[in-house]
Amino acid sequence: MCQCERLGTEEQVKEFYDVLSKYKGNKDNIMVVLQTTQNIFGYIPEKSVKIIAENLEMPESEIYGIISFYSQFTLTPKAKYNIDICLGTACFVLGAQDVLNKILSKLNVRVGEMTQDGKWIVTSCRCLGCCGLAPAMTINGEVYGKLKVEDIDRILDNFAD
Ligand code: FES
């Protein structure tokens, strides 16, 4: 398998190498290269770090140092859909934990874990600022309120692969 296949789609890889060829041999452009890499793949694949290091002629360790210093960069792939469920007081007393348990068992994950297909990640928070809709959650920022356990299948099944 060639390196490109493991990095991302053909289009993503082409775009990535186009950026690298623009900045080849010039480590002063590391920030823009990292930002563009993350825009292309949604995160910075570890494999891309090696390729960036070779092309910009700088040590991989220096690149990892920059990635860990700036919170905008992530080495972890993001799921397509992020469910953020509120476990704050108003939501909790109205059954948020049962809703969360239903989501976790349906997706077969734990809080903070991504499904194997990269489709879902479930996180929890202390208040979404819409306590009147308790129990509430967001999916990619869109609020779903007054949740009941029996709503979950219908809500999640509406999201495309
Ligand atoms: S406590 Fe859940 S939205 Fe505020």
Question: Care to describe what's here?
Answer:
The protein is an alpha+beta fold and 161 residues long. The chain has 2 domains: 3-69; 81-157, Glutaredoxin (3-Layer(aba) Sandwich), CATH 3.40.30.10. Helices cover 47% and strands 11% of the residues. The chain has 8 helices and 4 strands. Strands 2-1-3-4 form a 4-stranded mixed beta sheet, covered by helices on one side. Strand 3 (137-139) and strand 4 form a beta hairpin. It is elongated and about 60 Å long. Mean pLDDT is 91; it is low at 1-5. FE2/S2 (inorganic) cluster is lined by residues 86, 88-91, 127-128, 130-131, 134, 136.
Briefly, what is this?
The chain is an alpha+beta fold. The chain has eight helices and four strands, in the order H-H-H-H-H-E-H-H-E-E-E-H.
Supply the key terms.
single chain; 161 residues; alpha+beta; Glutaredoxin; 2 domains; four-stranded mixed β-sheet; elongated; binds FE2/S2 (inorganic) cluster
If classified by CATH, what would the architecture of the largest domain be?
A: 3-Layer(aba) Sandwich
Q: What structural category arises from helix and sheet content?
A: alpha+beta
Which small-molecule ligands are present, each listed once?
FE2/S2 (inorganic) cluster
Topology, number of strands: 4
Give the amount of beta strand, in percent. Answer: 5-15%
Name the assembly state: single chain
Through-space gap between termini = 26 Å
Strand order of the largest sheet: 2-1-3-4
Helix content: 40-55%
Rg from alpha-carbon coordinates: 20 Å
What is the number of helical segments per DSSP (H or I, 4+ residues)?
Answer: 8
Mean pLDDT: 91
The domain count comes to: 2
